[in-house]
Write a structure and sequence with these properties.
By secondary structure, this protein is an alpha/beta fold. Helix content is 52%, strand content 10%. It has helices at residues 4-18, 43-51, 55-65, 89-101, 134-149, 165-177, 200-216, 218-233, 236-259, 277-286, 324-338, 353-365, 401-419, 424-444, 456-459, 467-486, 502-511, 514-524, 527-547, 556-580; strands at 28-30, 39-41, 72-78, 82-87, 115-119, 153-157, 290-293, 296-299, 313-316, 343-349, 374-380, 383-384, 452-453. The strands form four sheets. A four-stranded antiparallel β-sheet has the order 1-2-4-3. A four-stranded parallel β-sheet has the order 6-5-10-11, sandwiched between helices. A hairpin with a 3-residue loop joins strand 3 (72-78) and strand 4 (82-87). The longest helix has 25 residues, at 556-580. The chain is globular. Bound molecules: arginine. Residues 119, 122, 124, 159, 161, 328, 346, 348 line the site of arginine (ARG). The site of arginine has 8 residues, from strand 10.
Length: 588
């Protein structure tokens, strides 16, 4: 199904042509004066120069052609040369009907679907998830769902940081506590126990401690680096410990991501490309891409046109150790081999922008990717506290993700309890569902690149531009539909009738923006477009709801048509929140 603005522009183009002007001038946009008109066209202004005519004269000529248009009910030429437009209810009725009938509400599927890999999550093994990992998870999950819905093949990869010093630190602390473990005995050549030498609970406590010790004590830090080198180079006992730590950590990470409704297709990590590194290094050396600089192996990536300093991309440190760059480049190599994606999108904190610029340039220069492979960095801003600084716990520490989710849940529970009677268990479950909407919508309604303030009070409010407001609207629709059925109404076989009021027409106009919005959201990888759309839609619905008798409507056909409109609104809203990564309860 064609997008509404395209249909309107087509009709307008015909009118320009019939009046003797170029059809391309007939581009129609949403009105920026909704008090005056629904849509507008500024083509007469643009044509004035070319046709050496006053814009108002052109607008008048065009308006005359639209006298019996089936699409526009009103086209008024107003000074200095705008065309103010209202569309016909019949045309709208037709669009709404098609939207309800076709799959995906009539969204057109791409002729050439793309294969897109999204690298998001980025949690680090051994460290508990903290609020810094909230944004990439939420944003990446939504972009994945949006692109998939838009008809592309999408693969989400968590790309765990599972090859770094935090693991060395945990090993070092473990050695302090249990030096007798066979892993540390170099002469031991028996099998290692099946059971992990560390429990989940121990784990949560051990890393912060080890990390603090390493900061305070250079000798301890040196040992942690040595332990890191040992597991990386494959020293048997250390590699075995590394494996336990990764496995235990993954259980915890999975639970956290599950609680956020975030699902990865691939649970790969930096370690997965370990075996590829020697091959990649040799390739870069043999082809003259990499050279030694101050002992390290680097690839120059600066370009003539640079206006800022882009340092060389380091492939190996002077001691031969690999680094963040090395694993990212080898991962690109692996992804091209295994999946050959058209696009790879990285979602991390925007402070990694320069880093990714270096990595992308290096990957292009060394031909790890095809010339047409798109490498895209989507940097997100930080989530701040009310002081405008990155969000912290009350005592200034790093906030664990679990605690943040927990606090939001508690606040939501309190608000739900305040609002209505509900059995305890149901209230808890509902609070969980609604809290997720509060967190996610609070995040996603901002442009990803911007910082925002985490305001628990505002985010959990049932009013305003919030997740709970959207859910509240959905629940309201569901409850009307339930009542309608209780009164013997059937949800099948209903027919849409022409809008009977302004507010009904406005609701329909909000609905039919769906495929325009979806196309833009998928092209721009912009979940905030989905948020803006459902906020408008929810507002249009609530306005309509307050102005309209629905269940009390006496004319059966009319009542059926209103119910059909409710169902379509509910379906569109529920689809959209699913794209944002949350869902609605039955009651709240
Ligand atoms: N683990 C990294 C961090 O915590 C994020 C990983 C992002 N993805 C990537 N391919 N580098 O900063």
């Amino acid at each position: 199904m064609k997008r509404i603005l395209d249909l309107l522009s087509e009709e307008m183009g015909k009118a320009f042509e019939a009046a003797g002007y170029e059809a391309s001038l007939g581009r129609v946009t949403l009105s920026n004066r909704p008090d005056l008109c629904e849509y507008q066209c500024n083509g007469a202004m643009a044509g004035a120069k070319k046709y050496r005519k006053a814009p108002l004269m052109i607008a008048n000529d065009v308006a005359l052609q639209l006298g019996d248009s089936p699409v526009f009910k009103e086209a008024a030429a107003v000074a200095p040369g705008f065309l103010n437009l209202r569309i016909s209810e019949d045309f709208l009725l037709n669009m709404v009907g098609t939207m309800a009938e076709e799959g995906k509400f009539g969204l057109e599927m791409p002729e050439m679907p793309k294969k897109i890999m999204i690298d998001y999550g980025g949690a680090n093994v051994a460290k508990p998830l903290h609020v810094g990992h909230l944004r990439p998870a939420i944003i990446g999950e939504s972009i994945k769902r949006i692109c998939r819905y838009a008809g592309h093949e999408v693969i989400g990869d968590v790309h765990l940081g599972d090859w770094g010093t935090p693991i060395g630190m945990v090993i070092t602390e473990l050695q302090e506590r249990k030096p007798e473990l066979p892993y540390f005995d170099e002469n031991y050549d028996g099998a290692y126990p099946d059971e992990a030498p560390i429990t989940e609970a121990e784990f949560a406590e051990i890393y912060p401690l080890a990390s603090a010790k390493a900061k305070a004590d250079p000798e301890y830090r040196a040992r942690a680096l040595e332990a890191t080198r040992k597991f990386q180079t494959g020293v048997r006992g250390y590699r075995a410990l590394w494996k336990y730590i990764v496995d235990v950590s993954k259980v915890d990470l999975k639970r956290n991501y599950d609680s956020l409704n975030v699902e990865f297709d691939l649970w790969k990590g930096e370690s997965d490309v370990n075996d590829l590194i020697p091959e990649m290094v040799a390739y870069m050396k043999d082809n003259g891409y990499a050279h030694i600089s101050e002992g390290a192996l680097v690839v120059d990536v600066k370009e003539e046109t640079d206006t800022r300093e882009i340092p060389p991309c380091m492939i190996l440190k002077s001691d031969g150790a690999s680094l963040y760059n090395t694993t990212d480049l080898a991962t690109i190599m692996e992804r091209m081999r295994l999946y050959d994606p058209d696009e790879i999108i990285y979602i991390t904190d925007k402070r990694q922008e320069l880093y990714f610029e270096q990595v992308f340039r290096c990957a292009r220069k060394t031909k790890l990717v095809k010339p047409e492979t798109v490498l895209k960095f989507l940097g997100h801003g930080t989530m701040n506290g009310s002081d405008g600084k990155p969000f912290k716990t009350r005592d200034g520490g790093v906030m664990r993700l679990e605690s943040l989710v927990g606090e939001t849940r508690d606040e939501m529970y309190r608000k739900i309890r305040e609002g209505r009677e509900m059995p305890e268990e149901e209230a808890r479950k509902t609070a969980e569902t609604v809290a997720l909407s509060a967190l996610k919508y609070g995040d996603l309604s901002n442009q990803a690149a911007k910082d925002y303030v985490f305001d628990i009070d505002r985010f959990t409010s049932f009013e305003g531009d919030t997740g709970p407001y959207i859910l509240y609207t959905i629940v309201r629709i569901k409850s009307i539909l339930n009542k309608y059925q209780e009164q013997g109404g059937k949800l099948e076989g209903l027919t849409f009738l022409k809008a009977g009021s302004e507010s009904e027409k406005e609701l329909e106009m909000a609905l039919v923006q769906f495929n325009t919005m979806m196309t833009n959201a998928a092209e721009e990888k912009a979940p905030h477009r989905v948020c803006a759309y459902i906020y408008d839609l929810a507002n249009a619905f609530n306005h309509f709801y307050h102005e309209t008798k629905i269940l009390a409507e006496e004319d059966e056909a009319r009542r059926g048509s209103l119910i059909a409109l409710l169902m379509l609104t509910r379906d569109v809203l529920e689809t959209c929140i699913d794209l944002l990564g949350f869902s609605a309860p039955e009651k709240m």
